[in-house]
């Protein structure tokens, strides 16, 4: 049952509880759960609340509507300085690192579309469960570089990451995501909710103090292998790429044609 505290959260993020399991639900369905300042603020509050609640052992993050998340809301683009850009991107990265080092296990229940920055979120979770109808992928336009791909590189390796990251608008299915390693499990469409809950229930049987220590032990190995250092390099690289002439051209096309028109222009080019 939703508490009064939970109802007070703004509508961009919802909390639901099922025993020892809590759902964090991204709730901008009309924008396919694209990230904006309100959603990030509400996500932070939800994480704060559930971190303090010892009755909750496992979190599941999912999206309302047709998508898990299509990433950052880029409709309103402002040209910052390189330093401002880097600092903004570092703020996003620290949020994903918080997800990764969160003391309780977090499962991403991924459906519909998981694109661009949305894949940073899921790749920072401990386990990803998806279904066969889901589309994973990169931005439809080359708007940056070195920011999203580093998260994929960790899970799927250099060749597959380069193949996807260097091709704007690349997509893979949920089944391919499982084969590549960015998802732990892929189930038939219609079975995702129950399959994710089954995994969460299995984890929640273990006492919370043990779960916290086991997750920390796994993360220590990832740290030794360079995960934190790698993703923190992304903001620097992305801020530099944002100054490239090619990026400026893409944003000019967005201003001229709108986002959808710019995507059509880009993919209609003959090579």
Structure, described:
By secondary structure, the protein is an alpha/beta fold. The protein has one domain (4-194, 204-267): 2-enoyl-CoA Hydratase, Chain A, domain 1 (Alpha-Beta Complex). 52% of the residues lie in helices and 15% in strands. It contains eleven helices and nine strands. The protein has helices at residues 4-8, 37-52, 82-101, 117-124, 149-156, 158-165, 174-180, 192-204, 208-224, 227-241, 245-267; strands spanning 13-18, 21-26, 58-63, 106-110, 113-115, 127-131, 135-137, 171-173, 185-187. The strands form two sheets. It has a six-stranded mixed sheet with strand order 1-2-3-4-6-9, with helices on both faces. Strand 3, helix 3 (82-101) and strand 4 form a beta-alpha-beta unit.
**Could you tell me the strand content as a percent range?**
5-15%
What is the CATH top level name?
Alpha Beta
User: Which CATH architecture would you pick?
Assistant: Alpha-Beta Complex
Ends apart, CA distance between termini:
56 Å
Low-confidence stretches: 4-9
Set out the fold topology.
Blueprint: H1 4-8, E1 13-18, E2 21-26, H2 37-52, E3 58-63, H3 82-101, E4 106-110, E5 113-115, H4 117-124, E6 127-131, E7 135-137, H5 149-156, H6 158-165, E8 171-173, H7 174-180, E9 185-187, H8 192-204, H9 208-224, H10 227-241, H11 245-267
Parallel strand pairs: 2-3, 3-4, 4-6, 5-7, 6-9
Antiparallel strand pairs: 1-2, 7-8
Helix pairs in contact: 3-4, 3-10, 5-6
